[in-house]
Amino acid sequence: MSVLLETSLGDLVIDLETETCPKTCENFLKLCKVYYYNLNAFFNVQKDFLAQSGDPTATGVGGESIWSYIQSSSSNSSSSVPRFFTPEMNPKLKHTTKGTVSMAVAPAVDGGLSGCGSQFFITLVDNADYLDGIHAVFGHVVEGLETLDKLNDVFVGRDFRPLKDVRIRHVEILDDPFPDPPGLIRPPSSPIKPPDNSTRIAEDEDPLATLPEEEEERLRREKAAAASALTLEMVGDLPFANVRPPENVLFVCKLNAVTRDEDLELIFSRFGTIMSCHVIRDKKTGDSLQYAFIEFDRREDAEQAYFKMQNVLVDDRRIWVDFSQSVAKTNNAEAVGLVGRDDLVQTKRYRDDFDEKGRGGYDMVFDVPDRDRRRKRSRSRDGRDSGRDSRRRRSRSASPRRERDRRRDDHRR
Protein backbone atom coordinates (compact mmCIF):
# COMPACT_ATOMS: atom_id res chain seq x y z
CA MET A 1 0.00 0.00 0.00
CA SER A 2 1.74 3.14 -1.22
CA VAL A 3 1.29 6.89 -1.56
CA LEU A 4 3.10 9.26 -3.93
CA LEU A 5 3.91 12.72 -2.56
CA GLU A 6 4.78 15.22 -5.28
CA THR A 7 6.81 17.94 -3.55
CA SER A 8 8.48 21.08 -4.87
CA LEU A 9 11.86 19.32 -4.49
CA GLY A 10 10.89 16.00 -6.05
CA ASP A 11 8.72 12.94 -5.62
CA LEU A 12 8.50 10.64 -2.60
CA VAL A 13 6.94 7.17 -2.64
CA ILE A 14 5.91 5.94 0.82
CA ASP A 15 5.06 2.32 1.62
CA LEU A 16 2.56 2.08 4.50
CA GLU A 17 2.44 -0.52 7.28
CA THR A 18 -1.28 -1.17 6.81
CA GLU A 19 -1.27 -4.52 8.66
CA THR A 20 0.76 -3.38 11.67
CA CYS A 21 -0.80 0.12 12.01
CA PRO A 22 -4.21 -0.10 10.30
CA LYS A 23 -5.88 2.87 12.01
CA THR A 24 -2.90 5.19 11.47
CA CYS A 25 -2.62 4.19 7.81
CA GLU A 26 -6.38 4.58 7.28
CA ASN A 27 -6.23 8.08 8.78
CA PHE A 28 -3.31 9.03 6.52
CA LEU A 29 -4.84 7.57 3.35
CA LYS A 30 -8.24 9.20 3.84
CA LEU A 31 -6.66 12.58 4.57
CA CYS A 32 -4.76 12.20 1.30
CA LYS A 33 -8.03 11.33 -0.45
CA VAL A 34 -9.73 14.59 0.58
CA TYR A 35 -6.66 16.62 -0.53
CA TYR A 36 -5.92 17.56 3.07
CA TYR A 37 -2.16 17.50 2.51
CA ASN A 38 -2.16 19.29 -0.84
CA LEU A 39 -0.10 22.52 -0.75
CA ASN A 40 0.91 21.89 2.86
CA ALA A 41 4.37 23.21 3.73
CA PHE A 42 7.27 21.43 5.39
CA PHE A 43 7.30 23.90 8.28
CA ASN A 44 9.92 22.16 10.45
CA VAL A 45 13.10 20.97 8.74
CA GLN A 46 16.04 20.17 11.00
CA LYS A 47 19.23 19.14 9.25
CA ASP A 48 20.25 15.51 9.82
CA PHE A 49 17.13 15.00 11.93
CA LEU A 50 13.63 15.27 10.40
CA ALA A 51 11.26 17.14 8.07
CA GLN A 52 7.74 17.74 9.42
CA SER A 53 4.52 18.53 7.52
CA GLY A 54 0.78 17.83 7.63
CA ASP A 55 -0.30 21.01 9.46
CA PRO A 56 -2.46 23.29 7.26
CA THR A 57 -1.60 26.26 9.47
CA ALA A 58 2.18 25.54 9.24
CA THR A 59 2.51 26.45 12.93
CA GLY A 60 2.94 23.03 14.51
CA VAL A 61 -0.28 23.23 16.54
CA GLY A 62 -2.87 22.62 13.80
CA GLY A 63 -4.28 19.56 12.12
CA GLU A 64 -6.85 16.89 13.00
CA SER A 65 -7.72 13.29 12.26
CA ILE A 66 -9.93 12.25 9.35
CA TRP A 67 -12.82 11.43 11.69
CA SER A 68 -12.67 14.87 13.29
CA TYR A 69 -12.44 16.40 9.81
CA ILE A 70 -15.60 14.57 8.68
CA GLN A 71 -17.45 15.64 11.81
CA SER A 72 -16.42 19.29 11.42
CA SER A 73 -17.37 19.26 7.73
CA SER A 74 -20.84 17.86 8.42
CA SER A 75 -23.40 20.34 9.74
CA ASN A 76 -25.94 17.65 10.69
CA SER A 77 -23.67 15.63 12.97
CA SER A 78 -24.55 15.93 16.65
CA SER A 79 -21.99 13.52 18.06
CA SER A 80 -18.66 14.83 19.31
CA VAL A 81 -15.56 13.26 17.75
CA PRO A 82 -12.18 13.88 19.40
CA ARG A 83 -9.59 15.77 17.41
CA PHE A 84 -6.86 13.13 17.93
CA PHE A 85 -6.86 9.33 18.00
CA THR A 86 -4.74 6.98 20.06
CA PRO A 87 -1.32 6.32 18.50
CA GLU A 88 -0.43 2.76 17.49
CA MET A 89 2.98 2.10 19.03
CA ASN A 90 4.55 -1.07 17.72
CA PRO A 91 7.92 -2.02 19.24
CA LYS A 92 8.93 -3.71 15.98
CA LEU A 93 8.74 -0.45 14.05
CA LYS A 94 11.69 1.79 14.90
CA HIS A 95 13.40 4.86 13.48
CA THR A 96 16.41 2.90 12.28
CA THR A 97 16.68 4.00 8.64
CA LYS A 98 16.60 7.27 6.81
CA GLY A 99 13.16 7.98 5.35
CA THR A 100 11.12 6.55 8.21
CA VAL A 101 7.63 8.11 8.25
CA SER A 102 5.96 8.66 11.64
CA MET A 103 2.88 10.40 12.97
CA ALA A 104 3.75 13.26 15.29
CA VAL A 105 2.18 12.58 18.68
CA ALA A 106 0.97 15.68 20.48
CA PRO A 107 1.85 15.87 24.18
CA ALA A 108 -1.00 16.05 26.69
CA VAL A 109 -1.33 18.64 29.43
CA ASP A 110 -0.57 16.09 32.18
CA GLY A 111 2.67 15.03 30.48
CA GLY A 112 1.29 11.87 28.87
CA LEU A 113 0.56 11.17 25.20
CA SER A 114 -2.42 13.02 23.78
CA GLY A 115 -2.78 11.41 20.36
CA CYS A 116 -2.23 11.73 16.62
CA GLY A 117 -3.93 14.06 14.18
CA SER A 118 -2.63 14.85 10.70
CA GLN A 119 0.96 15.92 11.31
CA PHE A 120 3.71 13.56 10.22
CA PHE A 121 7.47 13.71 9.75
CA ILE A 122 10.16 11.93 7.75
CA THR A 123 13.57 11.20 9.27
CA LEU A 124 16.60 12.55 7.40
CA VAL A 125 19.21 10.40 9.14
CA ASP A 126 19.73 6.76 10.14
CA ASN A 127 19.40 5.46 13.70
CA ALA A 128 17.16 8.12 15.22
CA ASP A 129 16.40 5.72 18.04
CA TYR A 130 15.68 8.55 20.51
CA LEU A 131 12.30 8.90 18.74
CA ASP A 132 11.32 5.30 19.42
CA GLY A 133 8.37 4.94 21.78
CA ILE A 134 7.51 8.65 21.45
CA HIS A 135 6.16 8.86 17.88
CA ALA A 136 4.26 6.23 15.88
CA VAL A 137 6.04 4.78 12.84
CA PHE A 138 3.64 3.81 10.02
CA GLY A 139 5.67 3.88 6.77
CA HIS A 140 8.99 4.18 4.94
CA VAL A 141 10.21 6.10 1.89
CA VAL A 142 11.10 3.57 -0.79
CA GLU A 143 11.68 5.98 -3.69
CA GLY A 144 12.97 9.53 -3.68
CA LEU A 145 15.89 9.41 -1.26
CA GLU A 146 17.59 12.09 -3.39
CA THR A 147 14.60 14.32 -2.64
CA LEU A 148 15.27 13.81 1.06
CA ASP A 149 18.87 14.89 0.49
CA LYS A 150 17.63 18.13 -1.11
CA LEU A 151 15.22 18.62 1.76
CA ASN A 152 18.04 18.12 4.25
CA ASP A 153 20.11 20.87 2.61
CA VAL A 154 17.51 23.67 2.48
CA PHE A 155 18.22 26.95 4.27
CA VAL A 156 16.09 27.50 7.33
CA GLY A 157 15.50 30.27 9.86
CA ARG A 158 15.61 30.24 13.63
CA ASP A 159 12.28 28.42 13.82
CA PHE A 160 13.61 25.72 11.45
CA ARG A 161 11.18 26.78 8.73
CA PRO A 162 12.73 26.90 5.24
CA LEU A 163 13.35 30.40 3.95
CA LYS A 164 11.93 29.23 0.63
CA ASP A 165 8.73 27.23 1.00
CA VAL A 166 8.91 23.50 0.36
CA ARG A 167 5.40 22.22 -0.26
CA ILE A 168 3.49 19.05 -1.07
CA ARG A 169 2.09 19.94 -4.45
CA HIS A 170 -0.07 16.87 -4.90
CA VAL A 171 -0.75 13.48 -3.30
CA GLU A 172 -1.57 10.41 -5.36
CA ILE A 173 -2.89 7.27 -3.65
CA LEU A 174 -1.39 4.23 -5.38
CA ASP A 175 -3.30 1.61 -3.33
CA ASP A 176 -5.99 2.00 -0.65
CA PRO A 177 -7.32 -1.17 1.02
CA PHE A 178 -9.65 0.61 3.48
CA PRO A 179 -13.29 1.48 2.79
CA ASP A 180 -14.28 5.11 3.15
CA PRO A 181 -15.66 6.01 6.60
CA PRO A 182 -19.29 7.21 6.76
CA GLY A 183 -19.71 10.83 5.76
CA LEU A 184 -16.48 11.10 3.77
CA ILE A 185 -16.96 13.40 0.76
CA ARG A 186 -14.10 13.89 -1.65
CA PRO A 187 -13.77 17.48 -2.92
CA PRO A 188 -14.26 17.92 -6.68
CA SER A 189 -10.77 19.34 -7.16
CA SER A 190 -7.50 19.99 -5.40
CA PRO A 191 -7.05 23.38 -3.68
CA ILE A 192 -5.22 26.03 -5.67
CA LYS A 193 -4.20 28.28 -2.76
CA PRO A 194 -1.94 27.30 0.16
CA PRO A 195 -3.90 26.98 3.42
CA ASP A 196 -1.37 29.04 5.41
CA ASN A 197 -0.51 32.72 5.02
CA SER A 198 3.17 32.32 4.25
CA THR A 199 5.46 35.33 3.87
CA ARG A 200 8.42 33.22 2.75
CA ILE A 201 9.79 32.90 -0.76
CA ALA A 202 7.21 31.00 -2.82
CA GLU A 203 8.07 27.44 -3.72
CA ASP A 204 7.80 28.24 -7.44
CA GLU A 205 9.85 31.46 -7.20
CA ASP A 206 13.56 31.62 -7.94
CA PRO A 207 15.18 34.38 -5.86
CA LEU A 208 18.44 34.10 -7.85
CA ALA A 209 16.81 34.34 -11.26
CA THR A 210 18.14 37.20 -13.39
CA LEU A 211 16.34 39.09 -16.11
CA PRO A 212 17.95 40.29 -19.34
CA GLU A 213 19.95 43.46 -18.92
CA GLU A 214 17.46 45.51 -20.95
CA GLU A 215 14.53 44.28 -18.85
CA GLU A 216 16.32 45.00 -15.58
CA GLU A 217 17.18 48.51 -16.79
CA ARG A 218 13.55 49.11 -17.78
CA LEU A 219 12.27 47.96 -14.40
CA ARG A 220 14.89 50.06 -12.62
CA ARG A 221 13.85 53.15 -14.58
CA GLU A 222 10.17 52.52 -13.85
CA LYS A 223 10.83 52.22 -10.13
CA ALA A 224 12.98 55.35 -10.12
CA ALA A 225 10.32 57.28 -12.03
CA ALA A 226 7.59 56.13 -9.64
CA ALA A 227 9.69 57.17 -6.64
CA SER A 228 10.41 60.58 -8.17
CA ALA A 229 6.74 61.12 -8.99
CA LEU A 230 5.75 60.29 -5.42
CA THR A 231 8.34 62.73 -4.08
CA LEU A 232 7.09 65.49 -6.37
CA GLU A 233 3.53 64.81 -5.28
CA MET A 234 4.53 65.08 -1.62
CA VAL A 235 6.22 68.45 -2.12
CA GLY A 236 3.25 69.72 -4.12
CA ASP A 237 4.88 69.95 -7.56
CA LEU A 238 2.54 67.34 -9.04
CA PRO A 239 -1.23 67.22 -8.52
CA PHE A 240 -1.00 63.42 -8.22
CA ALA A 241 1.73 60.85 -8.75
CA ASN A 242 0.07 59.22 -11.78
CA VAL A 243 0.22 62.35 -13.91
CA ARG A 244 2.15 61.98 -17.15
CA PRO A 245 3.97 64.74 -19.07
CA PRO A 246 2.61 65.62 -22.52
CA GLU A 247 3.99 63.56 -25.38
CA ASN A 248 3.87 66.34 -27.96
CA VAL A 249 6.06 68.90 -26.17
CA LEU A 250 9.85 69.01 -26.61
CA PHE A 251 12.35 70.47 -24.17
CA VAL A 252 15.30 72.15 -25.92
CA CYS A 253 18.34 73.32 -23.94
CA LYS A 254 21.95 74.48 -24.45
CA LEU A 255 20.66 77.28 -26.66
CA ASN A 256 22.66 80.32 -27.64
CA ALA A 257 21.60 83.42 -25.72
CA VAL A 258 20.79 85.20 -28.99
CA THR A 259 18.41 82.51 -30.26
CA ARG A 260 14.84 83.82 -30.48
CA ASP A 261 11.43 82.16 -30.46
CA GLU A 262 11.00 82.85 -34.16
CA ASP A 263 14.31 81.19 -34.97
CA LEU A 264 13.40 77.95 -33.20
CA GLU A 265 9.91 77.90 -34.65
CA LEU A 266 11.28 78.32 -38.14
CA ILE A 267 13.84 75.52 -37.66
CA PHE A 268 11.45 73.02 -36.09
CA SER A 269 8.43 73.80 -38.27
CA ARG A 270 9.71 71.53 -41.02
CA PHE A 271 8.68 68.51 -38.90
CA GLY A 272 5.06 69.54 -38.48
CA THR A 273 2.61 72.12 -37.24
CA ILE A 274 3.90 73.94 -34.15
CA MET A 275 1.31 75.13 -31.65
CA SER A 276 3.72 77.14 -29.51
CA CYS A 277 7.45 77.82 -29.25
CA HIS A 278 8.87 79.83 -26.35
CA VAL A 279 12.39 80.53 -25.16
CA ILE A 280 12.24 80.90 -21.39
CA ARG A 281 13.60 84.24 -20.15
CA ASP A 282 14.43 85.77 -16.81
CA LYS A 283 11.68 87.97 -15.40
CA LYS A 284 13.95 90.72 -14.14
CA THR A 285 16.60 91.01 -16.83
CA GLY A 286 14.83 89.60 -19.85
CA ASP A 287 17.88 87.50 -20.69
CA SER A 288 17.44 84.09 -22.23
CA LEU A 289 17.82 81.17 -19.84
CA GLN A 290 18.96 79.17 -22.87
CA TYR A 291 16.18 76.58 -22.88
CA ALA A 292 12.79 76.45 -24.55
CA PHE A 293 9.55 74.45 -24.92
CA ILE A 294 8.16 73.55 -28.34
CA GLU A 295 4.66 72.13 -28.64
CA PHE A 296 3.72 70.21 -31.78
CA ASP A 297 0.21 69.48 -32.91
CA ARG A 298 0.93 65.75 -33.22
CA ARG A 299 3.01 63.41 -31.11
CA GLU A 300 4.52 61.80 -34.24
CA ASP A 301 5.94 65.15 -35.34
CA ALA A 302 7.51 65.67 -31.91
CA GLU A 303 9.13 62.23 -32.06
CA GLN A 304 10.58 62.92 -35.48
CA ALA A 305 11.98 66.26 -34.33
CA TYR A 306 13.46 64.58 -31.25
CA PHE A 307 15.46 62.12 -33.35
CA LYS A 308 16.47 64.55 -36.11
CA MET A 309 17.44 67.63 -34.07
CA GLN A 310 19.61 66.03 -31.41
CA ASN A 311 23.04 67.77 -31.26
CA VAL A 312 22.20 69.97 -34.26
CA LEU A 313 24.17 73.22 -34.56
CA VAL A 314 21.94 76.27 -33.97
CA ASP A 315 23.58 79.70 -33.72
CA ASP A 316 27.00 78.09 -33.19
CA ARG A 317 25.67 75.99 -30.28
CA ARG A 318 24.86 72.27 -30.37
CA ILE A 319 21.42 71.97 -28.82
CA TRP A 320 20.07 69.13 -26.70
CA VAL A 321 16.51 67.93 -27.39
CA ASP A 322 14.39 65.80 -25.08
CA PHE A 323 10.73 65.24 -24.32
CA SER A 324 9.34 67.64 -21.74
CA GLN A 325 8.89 66.32 -18.22
CA SER A 326 7.03 69.41 -17.04
CA VAL A 327 3.39 69.03 -16.01
CA ALA A 328 2.91 72.62 -14.87
CA LYS A 329 0.08 73.10 -17.33
CA THR A 330 -1.83 70.15 -15.88
CA ASN A 331 -1.24 71.13 -12.25
CA ASN A 332 -4.56 72.88 -11.88
CA ALA A 333 -8.12 72.20 -10.90
CA GLU A 334 -8.97 70.80 -14.32
CA ALA A 335 -6.41 67.99 -13.90
CA VAL A 336 -8.41 66.51 -11.02
CA GLY A 337 -11.06 65.41 -13.47
CA LEU A 338 -8.50 63.42 -15.46
CA VAL A 339 -7.78 60.92 -12.66
CA GLY A 340 -8.13 57.30 -13.74
CA ARG A 341 -8.42 58.11 -17.45
CA ASP A 342 -6.14 56.82 -20.18
CA ASP A 343 -5.86 60.30 -21.71
CA LEU A 344 -4.58 61.68 -18.41
CA VAL A 345 -2.64 64.49 -20.09
CA GLN A 346 -4.49 66.04 -22.96
CA THR A 347 -2.96 68.23 -25.66
CA LYS A 348 -2.70 71.83 -24.47
CA ARG A 349 -2.93 74.83 -26.80
CA TYR A 350 -0.48 77.23 -25.18
CA ARG A 351 -0.99 79.72 -27.99
CA ASP A 352 -4.58 80.25 -26.79
CA ASP A 353 -3.20 81.54 -23.50
CA PHE A 354 -1.53 84.55 -25.21
CA ASP A 355 -3.38 87.70 -26.11
CA GLU A 356 -2.75 89.87 -29.14
CA LYS A 357 0.09 91.71 -27.35
CA GLY A 358 2.00 88.50 -26.61
CA ARG A 359 1.39 88.51 -22.87
CA GLY A 360 0.52 85.47 -20.77
CA GLY A 361 1.49 81.84 -21.29
CA TYR A 362 4.50 80.63 -19.34
CA ASP A 363 4.99 82.35 -16.01
CA MET A 364 8.71 82.85 -16.63
CA VAL A 365 8.28 84.58 -19.99
CA PHE A 366 9.36 88.20 -19.72
CA ASP A 367 6.58 90.77 -20.08
CA VAL A 368 7.95 93.44 -22.41
CA PRO A 369 5.45 96.27 -21.60
CA ASP A 370 6.03 95.86 -17.88
CA ARG A 371 9.77 95.90 -18.45
CA ASP A 372 9.57 99.23 -20.33
CA ARG A 373 7.49 100.82 -17.61
CA ARG A 374 9.85 99.64 -14.91
CA ARG A 375 12.86 100.99 -16.80
CA LYS A 376 11.16 104.40 -17.28
CA ARG A 377 10.28 104.63 -13.60
CA SER A 378 13.81 103.60 -12.63
CA ARG A 379 15.31 106.17 -15.06
CA SER A 380 13.14 108.99 -13.67
CA ARG A 381 13.99 108.10 -10.08
CA ASP A 382 17.68 107.94 -10.92
CA GLY A 383 17.48 111.37 -12.62
CA ARG A 384 15.89 113.09 -9.62
CA ASP A 385 18.27 111.48 -7.20
CA SER A 386 21.33 112.43 -9.29
CA GLY A 387 20.16 116.08 -9.42
CA ARG A 388 19.81 116.35 -5.70
CA ASP A 389 23.17 114.72 -5.16
CA SER A 390 24.92 117.14 -7.55
CA ARG A 391 23.42 120.15 -5.79
CA ARG A 392 24.57 118.78 -2.44
CA ARG A 393 28.03 118.24 -3.82
CA ARG A 394 28.14 121.81 -5.21
CA SER A 395 26.99 123.26 -1.91
CA ARG A 396 29.55 121.27 0.00
CA SER A 397 32.34 122.26 -2.38
CA ALA A 398 31.40 126.02 -2.14
CA SER A 399 31.55 126.27 1.64
CA PRO A 400 35.39 126.01 2.01
CA ARG A 401 35.92 128.69 -0.67
CA ARG A 402 33.75 131.22 1.18
CA GLU A 403 35.56 130.47 4.40
CA ARG A 404 38.92 131.18 2.76
CA ASP A 405 37.68 134.54 1.34
CA ARG A 406 36.39 135.61 4.74
CA ARG A 407 39.75 134.87 6.40
CA ARG A 408 41.60 136.79 3.66
CA ASP A 409 39.43 139.90 4.20
CA ASP A 410 40.01 139.81 7.97
CA HIS A 411 43.76 139.63 7.48
CA ARG A 412 43.77 142.72 5.20
CA ARG A 413 41.88 144.76 7.75
TrEMBL record:
A single GO cellular-component term on record: nucleus
Chain segments carrying region Disordered: 179-207, 365-413
Biased composition (Pro residues): 179-194
UniProt protein name: Peptidyl-prolyl cis-trans isomerase
Biased composition (Basic and acidic residues): 380-389, 400-413
Keywords, in A-Z order: Isomerase, Nucleus, RNA-binding, Rotamase
Described purpose of this protein according to its UniProt entry: PPIases accelerate the folding of proteins. It catalyzes the cis-trans isomerization of proline imidic peptide bonds in oligopeptides.
CDD domains: cyclophilin_RRM, RRM_PPIL4
SMART domains assigned: RRM (SM00360)
InterPro entries: CRIP (IPR035542), Cyclophilin-like_dom_sf (IPR029000), Cyclophilin-type_PPIase_dom (IPR002130), Cyclophilin_PPIL4 (IPR035538), Nucleotide-bd_a/b_plait_sf (IPR012677), RBD_domain_sf (IPR035979), RRM_dom (IPR000504)
Family to which the UniProt record says this protein belongs: Belongs to the cyclophilin-type PPIase family. PPIL4 subfamily.
Biological source species: Gymnopus androsaceus JB14
Main localization, broad class: nucleus
